[in-house]
Amino acid sequence: MLGRTLILRILSVRDRHIHRLLKLRNWRLCPRCPTVVFKDGNGTVNRVIRMGTRKSQLARIQTDYVAEKLKTLYPDVHLEIVAMSTIGDKILDTALSKIGEKSLFTKELENALERNEVDLVVHSLKDLPTTLPNGFTIGAVLQRESPHDAVVLHPKNSGLTLDTLPDGSVIGTSSLRRAAQLKKRFPHLEFKDIRGNLNTRLKKLDEKEDYAAIILAAAGLKRMGWEARVSQVLGPEDCMYAVGQGALAVEVRARDCDILEMVSTLHHSETVLRCIAERAFLRRLEGGCSVPVAVNTEVKDSVLSLTGAVYSLDGADSLKEAMETSVDPGNKLESAADIQHVGVTAHNVPQCAQVAAEKLGVDLANLLLSKGAMEILTTARKLNDAR
Ligand code: DPM
């Protein structure tokens, strides 16, 4: 459809005259929103799709990656990349969890989406709040890279692991989730905030003596081409990952049917279901990027399993539980069509499976809440605010 059509938005689709006009011209009305899609005379009108991105190297790499995929799928579409800075990029000296802004990396980009300056924005899913502002939706969740965290050592510590690093070694991370889990697991280590984009962090690690190692998402390191710097990948027994970690998401205007349809082909079903469960879990816990919440998910033989945990800042207090559900398309859980699940719109993934995934996240969160998760999180939040 795209690339050969022109799109016109109309105010009232109920107008009889408009319907008559549409029929007369053989134009098509979008079934989901008041948009008319009509064919150009010779079928060669190409729409320019503008992709918004942050200016960091990782954001550019991620946006280029999605642009390449779109180009392959829709060779006629013209893609333009618009780069901008966000609050998260500008405030580099404060830990993420201390900046009281939920959509640190996403707000400016969403403003541009709203003003029609861009048509889609590529994010790391883990940076997208579980409740998106009205009018936006995640139109694609791409196949997940490794969701795990990785250790990057100062070159002088080459060959060591978190276990074998000397007592008192300082590990750089400003993720409360990573610090909480690792403090408990490796009590001989100390943890210190480190901020900045990936380039800045690696520089801070290598060029100073402040940190013995830093912890970063394996996915980001891989995308940057820095896999060789990974000395250790942390499995769930050491450090469970963040909700949505390792997956890319494409955010669009919820009413922009043509763009939604276009990007929906990028969805990776298994990743969609895992991330819906994870996001539903986090949303029910009222968590953001400033609380120590971690997950682990898996899909095997149409069964989606979710392990979720909450931690006190020092990791001494924690609650961890696991649950699973069938995501077999034959599992007939009824739902209204055209529904968003924790911000995700995926018409091409079985609705019943999405409903089951969301319910799994909510159920697991409820289980943890019944065991006192809110007390742990409230205390963690207060202590972090007072830091
Ligand atoms: C969020 C967190 C961090 C980012 C918190 C967490 C890490 C902050 C830090 C919500 N977003 O993970 O517990 O280390 O100080 C971020 C990264 C990526 C996306 C970098 C990273 C790349 C990986 C991906 C920052 N957001 O975590 O090393 O695409 O998932």
Automatic annotation (TrEMBL):
<dbReference type="Pfam" id="PF01379">
    <property type="entry name" value="Porphobil_deam"/>
</dbReference>
<feature type="domain" description="Porphobilinogen deaminase N-terminal">
    <location>
        <begin position="49"/>
        <end position="259"/>
    </location>
</feature>
<keyword id="KW-0597">Phosphoprotein</keyword>
<dbReference type="GO" id="GO:0005829">
    <property type="term" value="C:cytosol"/>
</dbReference>
<dbReference type="Pfam" id="PF03900">
    <property type="entry name" value="Porphobil_deamC"/>
</dbReference>
<dbReference type="GO" id="GO:0004418">
    <property type="term" value="F:hydroxymethylbilane synthase activity"/>
</dbReference>
<comment type="similarity">
    <text>Belongs to the HMBS family.</text>
</comment>
<comment type="subunit">
    <text>Monomer.</text>
</comment>
<dbReference type="InterPro" id="IPR022419">
    <property type="entry name" value="Porphobilin_deaminase_cofac_BS"/>
</dbReference>
<dbReference type="InterPro" id="IPR000860">
    <property type="entry name" value="HemC"/>
</dbReference>
<keyword id="KW-0808">Transferase</keyword>
<keyword id="KW-0963">Cytoplasm</keyword>
<protein>
    <recommendedName>
        <fullName>Porphobilinogen deaminase</fullName>
        <ecNumber>2.5.1.61</ecNumber>
    </recommendedName>
</protein>
<dbReference type="InterPro" id="IPR022418">
    <property type="entry name" value="Porphobilinogen_deaminase_C"/>
</dbReference>
<dbReference type="InterPro" id="IPR036803">
    <property type="entry name" value="Porphobilinogen_deaminase_C_sf"/>
</dbReference>
<feature type="domain" description="Porphobilinogen deaminase C-terminal">
    <location>
        <begin position="273"/>
        <end position="327"/>
    </location>
</feature>
<keyword id="KW-0627">Porphyrin biosynthesis</keyword>
<dbReference type="GO" id="GO:0006783">
    <property type="term" value="P:heme biosynthetic process"/>
</dbReference>
<keyword id="KW-0007">Acetylation</keyword>
<comment type="function">
    <text>As part of the heme biosynthetic pathway, catalyzes the sequential polymerization of four molecules of porphobilinogen to form hydroxymethylbilane, also known as preuroporphyrinogen. Catalysis begins with the assembly of the dipyrromethane cofactor by the apoenzyme from two molecules of porphobilinogen or from preuroporphyrinogen. The covalently linked cofactor acts as a primer, around which the tetrapyrrole product is assembled. In the last step of catalysis, the product, preuroporphyrinogen, is released, leaving the cofactor bound to the holodeaminase intact.</text>
</comment>
<dbReference type="InterPro" id="IPR022417">
    <property type="entry name" value="Porphobilin_deaminase_N"/>
</dbReference>
<comment type="pathway">
    <text>Porphyrin-containing compound metabolism; protoporphyrin-IX biosynthesis; coproporphyrinogen-III from 5-aminolevulinate: step 2/4.</text>
</comment>
